[in-house]
Amino acid sequence: MTLTRERLTFMPSLRLLPDLEESIRQIPGVRAVSVVTDAQAHPTEIHVLASPGKPAKQVVRDVQSLAMAQFDIDVDHRIVSVVQIEDEPVAGGEDDSVIDLDEAAPATEILEEIEAQARPMISEIGVRSTGSEIEVEVRLELDSDTFVGVERGAAAASARPRLVAAATISALDELLGLPAAVESAAVVDTGTHAVALVVITLSVPRIGAQSLAGSAVIRGDETDAVARAVLSAVNRRLG
Predict the structure, then answer these.
(1) Which CATH number goes with the domain that contains 103?
(2) Residue 12 forms part of a structural domain
(3) Which of 6, 22, 65, 122 maximizes the CB count within 10 A of its CB?
(4) Which tens digits make up the pLDDT trace of 39-49?
(5) Which residue intervals of the chain are DSSP H helices?
(6) Where would I find the beta strands (DSSP E) of 85-179?
């Protein structure tokens, strides 16, 4: 019997597109923005804090159009989250429509608080092989807490994406607060990139089954990509 242990440690999310952030801030109604990237400077999350003057879907389309026109970046609408907050008037002023920015909470601080809510990060993935079976352990971190999920199954390469997805969902169990299951998990070759695709089913009270899809470009290790695809599928629900 052979026994091996693989340990993978991942770097935290980066912000390598300051020019794109600055350009998005110029879109009318946008108060603050944060663009999270991977190590290759590809956007993985775009968080926008905006005034409620236009529909959130229009804000997303504006971000997509700007990114393509100025930076030749094709932004997937699913990575753009928009939070709209009403401006609060300053009492006692001559013009109540004017906000004293020195006294108001900075928009960037509000945005950072929004980003920090329920956004677990992958800290470690372990794969243990014992002959014809493997055990997958996924560790997630949120603030100072660690969440662990473990799944076991056949060692066949075709079965590994589903096991990794199931272990990630198991780690998310406490955070989701709803029954969840892996509907499908696969690695797809698009011609230029290999992509992990995951579909998760949530059981929502009084609504029923709700399907969530997530994807992640493989950056050297498909195990990591499958776990990131699961987080991509559920991050909006966690937020």
Answers:
(1) 3.30.300
(2) no
(3) 122
(4) 778 888 888 88
(5) 18-25, 56-71, 107-116, 160-176, 222-238
(6) 121-130, 133-142, 145-154
